[in-house]
Fold this protein.
Amino acid sequence: MARRKKGRDISGWLVVDKPAGVSSNSVVGKIRWAFSANKAGHAGTLDPEATGILAIALGEATKTVPYITDALKAYDFTIRLGEATNTDDSEGVVIATSELRPTDAQIAEALAPFTGDILQVPPKFSAVKLDGKRAYALSRSGEDVTLAARPLFVDELTLLERMDTDHVTLHMVCGKGGYVRSIARDLGEALGCHAHVRGLRRVWSGPFELEDAVTLEQVEALAKAPEIDALLLPLETGLADLPELPTTVDGATKLRNGNPGIVLAADAEYGDEAWASLNGQAIAVGRYKAGELHPSRVFR
C-alpha cells in the first residue's frame, strides 16, 4: 500500500525575502511546516549568507519550478577588492592580497567581457558534484578540487556604486546556473587586484520581485492559521513567461487525462511550449500543435 503524504493539498507560490544566516532548504522546510503543505520546493538556491528573493512552490506549483529556475534573475552584490578567499566570499580564508585598486572606469571597462554567453568555473566551495560528491565537501576535507567551466548567459553587468576604495556594488542579470562568487573572483583576476563577494541580494527572479516578498517573521506569525493562505500567489504566476491558451471544458477533461486537448491559440506558434487554461485556471503545460496542446505536465 502506498504511503499517504502528510499535509494539506495546497498549491501556489510564496516569495520569501530570505534573511542572511539561513539555508534555502531550511526556509523551504519552515514554509512547508507553516502551511502544513504536503509538498514544497524552491526555484533557485541562495547561499546561506545571501539575502533576497527565494521563490517557493507549494503543491501543484512545484510542477512549474523549472520555468522559474530557467528564467533570468537579477542580483545586487558588493565585492571586496584587494583580497581573494578560498570560498570566493567573506566566509572563507584570505589566500591572496594586492595593494592595487582599479579606478571606476577600469572596473566598468573590465565588465564587458563578462556579458553575453560566457564560460564560468564554479567556486570550489559549491554544490556542484564531482565524482558523485559535492565540491564543498571535497574542499572542506582538504582535497584539491578542479571544476570544469560551464556556460552562462549574462544579460547585464553594471557598476552601481563605489562605496570606498576597497568596495564596489555591481548589478547582474543572468540565466540559470550563475555563480556571483565566480564573477567577483574572475573580475578581480582580470583587474589584477583579486576580489571576493562581501554581500549578495537577489532582487528579482523571473516574474517575482521584492514587492511580492514576505518575511519569515510574517510567515511565522500566521503559521498554521487559515489567514496564512492569503500570502500565496497563484500557481499560474510560475507560468508567466509562457503563452496562455484557453481551452474548453471538453479540452480540459482530455488534458487532465494526459491526452491532447483543443486550445484557442493566441501568440503561440506550432511547437511552442504553452499552458492551457479554463476560466484562468492552469490545466496543463505542453507543446502547441495544430490547434491542440499536447501535455507534458498536468495540474490536478
